[in-house]
Amino acid sequence: MTPAPVIEFRGVGLTYPGPPPVPAFLPVDLVITGGEYVTITGPSGSGKSTFLNIAGLIDAPTEGRCLLDGMDTTGLPDSDRAGLRGRRIGFVFQSFHLLPHRSALDNVALAMVYSGVPRRERAARARDALVRVGLGHRVDAMPTRLSGGERQRVAIARALVGRPSLLLCDEPTGNLDTATADSVLALLDDLHKDGMTLVVITHDAAVAARGSRALAIRDGRLTEPRPARDARPAPLHTSADHRSGA
Ligand SMILES: Nc1ncnc2c1ncn2[C@@H]1O[C@H](COP(=O)(O)OP(=O)(O)OP(=O)(O)O)[C@@H](O)[C@H]1O
After folding, report:
1. ipTM
2. Which residues contact 98 (CB under 8 A, 6 or more apart)?
3. Distance between Cα 46 and ligand 1 center (Å)
4. 3-class state of residue 55 by DSSP
5. Which of 1, 67, 168, 187 could be disulfide-bonded to 8 (CB atoms 3.0-4.6 Å)?
6. Which phi and psi angles does 138 have, rounded to 5°?
7. Cα distance between residue 154 and residue 147, in whole Å
């Protein structure tokens, strides 16, 4: 059975209103199917965060339609978008964003407060998620007593505990030394092998090389470089292309 699309952009673009207006993400068609491990690279200011905010249902695009798990999110009220985001998308950030005075277990369990998981199940699920990321022995540790790599693992456990269909990672190894970064990337590899859909934003070519599909973004234009023999970036179909019949 062909995996179903998790993210589907149909002519999705975003222009910040300004003034002056900033066309931060140019209209594009894109399908990311279940189980893909997509990396996105691009220089500062190229539109990576804008992409992440659209895909993560944080910002609504100013044009096009954005589907998550086949559901059209266009025009949904903010509360519905937040609900979908909470249930279906896990986020991992460069700077971990853990609560410093709560244990690893609490940090993960608190992610379920608004997701409808009964209170009595939260601790067990948080523990399972921490075991999954190799931190079963550190569940009671405070983030200040954890290494950078361990903190990022807690953050990944927190992102996974709601059983999302998509993990969106923004520079997940940006604050880690090379050896620690490698162990976090190995964890992402494992999640990919288990079937998780991953989108990883990075400026690091070595990180980008880990994915199964590499996209690039420059000046708001998302492209999919061709396989090695022809390194020229190929544009993804944009709604403008459709309009011109290209
Ligand atoms: N709220 C906003 N209003 C207007 N312009 C914005 C806004 N947010 C971002 N931009 C502009 O949109 C463009 C894309 O920004 P974005 O933050 O997506 O880039 P990025 O690739 O994530 O950059 P970095 O790697 O530095 O975080 C940039 O030109 C930026 O200045």
Report:
1. 0.97
2. 107, 143, 151, 154, 155, 158
3. 7
4. helix
5. 67
6. -125, 20
7. 11
- φ, ψ for residue 178 (rounded to 5)? -60, -45
For a ligand 1 pocket test, name from 15, 25, 50, 169 the mutation site with the most ligand atoms within 8 angstroms of its C-beta. 50
134, 150 Cβ separation under 8 angstroms: no
Supply the residue whose CA is at minimum distance from atom 11 of ligand 1: 24
Helix (H, G, I), strand (E, B) or coil at 12: strand
Residues with CB under 6 A from ligand 1: 16, 22, 24, 42, 44-50
Count the alpha carbons within 13 Å of 32 in the hemisphere toward its beta carbon: 30
Which pTM value belongs to this model? 0.90
Protein residue whose Cα sits closest to atom 27 of ligand 1: 44
Average pLDDT along the chain, 246 residues, taken 10 residues at a time: 90 94 96 96 93 96 96 92 92 92 95 83 94 94 94 94 93 89 92 95 90 95 72 56 42
d(CA 130, CA 114): 19
